[in-house]
Amino acid sequence: MKKFIEFIIKMLELLFGFTKTKTNTNAMRYLLKEKTMNSSEQALYINLQKMLGDKYIVLSKVRLEDFIEVDTRGLSRNEWWGLRGKIKSRHVDFLICDLNTTKPILAIELDGNSHQTHKRIERDNFIDELYSSVQLRIEHIRVGSDFKQKVEKISTLLTDNK
What we know:
There is one protein chain. The protein has 162 residues and is of the alpha+beta class. 42% of the residues lie in helices and 19% in strands. It has one domain (39-160). It has helices at residues 2-16, 39-52, 77-85, 118-133, 147-160, and strands at 56-63, 91-98, 104-111, 137-142. A 4-stranded mixed β-sheet has the order 1-2-3-4, with helices on both faces. The longest helix is centred in the C-terminal third of the chain and has 16 residues, at 118-133. The N and C termini lie far apart (82 Å). 15% of the residues are buried.
């Protein structure tokens, strides 16, 4: 009988991937990316860092929820959860922050061809409205534009608004 039970266990292991000992097979299913930015993002980042890096903190790919929170006053948990869901998995391409306080000053979106689709236009409109509601300025920069010129404009904008 013992042999029969061992046989059944082995068959179940083979059929369903069960094992007697717990091993973490998912631990090795992750890879380190070669880089965190595509070539356009990296080119813009280099320009931002050169022009602004001594006066501001230049962050890339920051989750919206890391610098924007839901105002919970008067909201039910479900309402809060729904509003949080709109921002929790989204990010801004670049966030310019005050060097001393880390307060966000300017959001920058790098707009490629994907920003031409209806779904992405709706998302961008929501993001623009969101930034406006929290009084954070946003600049959209088109992929392929002169990044150095755009960053010079941003630098002037930041200097004028101090």
